[in-house]
Amino acid sequence: MKSIKKLLAMILGIILINGLYTSAVYAASSVKTESHSSTVLNRTMDYNVYLPPSYSTDAARKYPVMYLLHGMGGSYNDWKRMGMQSIVDKAGGKEMVIIMPDGLNNAFYVDGYKSGINWDTYFEQELIPYVEAKYRIDPANGKNRAIAGLSMGGFGAAYHGFKYPDKFSSAYSMSGALEVTGNLFSVVNKNKYPAFTMECGTEDTLVGQMNVSFHNKLQQAGISHDYITRSGTHSVEFWNACLPKAIVFASKYFITGSSNKGDANKDGNVDSLDLAAIKTALLEESFSDIDTLAADMNNDKSIDAIDLALLKAELLK
């Protein structure tokens, strides 16, 4: 009986310690609604901003940024309603700030598609400079800036990525409405373009053929890109499954931030030094010197012996 009580006490102690680690390691991410005044559009523009877990605890750190665009008939709030916060938290890519702008219903993220709405000019000349000054963002001359979106936003991601290759290191189109305006390929420069992925469901009768057509045009022009097709429709479920891949894809081309899972000491490599860094952090109950997102191997928002075991197993592969 005493041995059972002792075992239960040990288990309770582990639970309590892990609870302390959770609160010590992670402040939660956040999604906030903000607004600013646009001279180009002559109105106040709302947007949502996702701030990663370490943003509130590491005041000296600067982050890469992704601009995440919504679809036709939607608003800046769509991705939040779809649950993007928890999806991004678990995606496993680099920590980044994510800006979700308002596409003004059906402006297609270009100038003049809807009369009097110069969204392209607003985005490039007003929104990007504004948010990158307001938040701790390091765009690194475009190398730490990505763009992604769904449907109409997939078009917007491709359009801005190809039109401004010096400003975006990557672009990700999810079920992109890629031929609606008729001028997307005209902005493609085969001599300079961002890393580009397009993903579309095989049962997407709305934009499926547009994606096949654009993929073929890129192939014929010799433009390197990833074209992902899988079972799926033009749906929230499909886009939510795309988002983690978009996060990881963008992370691959950012030049700052934790390189990947396991790189606890932030030196760009995953090796025995990371094991030592995590062990030290656990022993000292101090996590300020490690990248907690990279050290959290099982994405459970705590750093513990399980993460050490998973990293060790990864290194032994």
UniProtKB/TrEMBL annotation:
<keyword id="KW-0378">Hydrolase</keyword>
<keyword id="KW-0119">Carbohydrate metabolism</keyword>
<dbReference type="InterPro" id="IPR018247">
    <property type="entry name" value="EF_Hand_1_Ca_BS"/>
</dbReference>
<dbReference type="InterPro" id="IPR002105">
    <property type="entry name" value="Dockerin_1_rpt"/>
</dbReference>
<feature type="domain" description="Dockerin">
    <location>
        <begin position="257"/>
        <end position="317"/>
    </location>
</feature>
<dbReference type="InterPro" id="IPR000801">
    <property type="entry name" value="Esterase-like"/>
</dbReference>
<keyword id="KW-0624">Polysaccharide degradation</keyword>
<dbReference type="GO" id="GO:0016747">
    <property type="term" value="F:acyltransferase activity, transferring groups other than amino-acyl groups"/>
</dbReference>
<keyword id="KW-0136">Cellulose degradation</keyword>
<dbReference type="Pfam" id="PF00756">
    <property type="entry name" value="Esterase"/>
</dbReference>
<dbReference type="InterPro" id="IPR016134">
    <property type="entry name" value="Dockerin_dom"/>
</dbReference>
<dbReference type="GO" id="GO:0008810">
    <property type="term" value="F:cellulase activity"/>
</dbReference>
<dbReference type="InterPro" id="IPR050583">
    <property type="entry name" value="Mycobacterial_A85_antigen"/>
</dbReference>
<dbReference type="InterPro" id="IPR029058">
    <property type="entry name" value="AB_hydrolase_fold"/>
</dbReference>
<protein>
    <recommendedName>
        <fullName>cellulase</fullName>
        <ecNumber>3.2.1.4</ecNumber>
    </recommendedName>
</protein>
<dbReference type="InterPro" id="IPR036439">
    <property type="entry name" value="Dockerin_dom_sf"/>
</dbReference>
<dbReference type="GO" id="GO:0030245">
    <property type="term" value="P:cellulose catabolic process"/>
</dbReference>
<keyword id="KW-0732">Signal</keyword>
<keyword id="KW-0326">Glycosidase</keyword>
<dbReference type="Pfam" id="PF00404">
    <property type="entry name" value="Dockerin_1"/>
</dbReference>
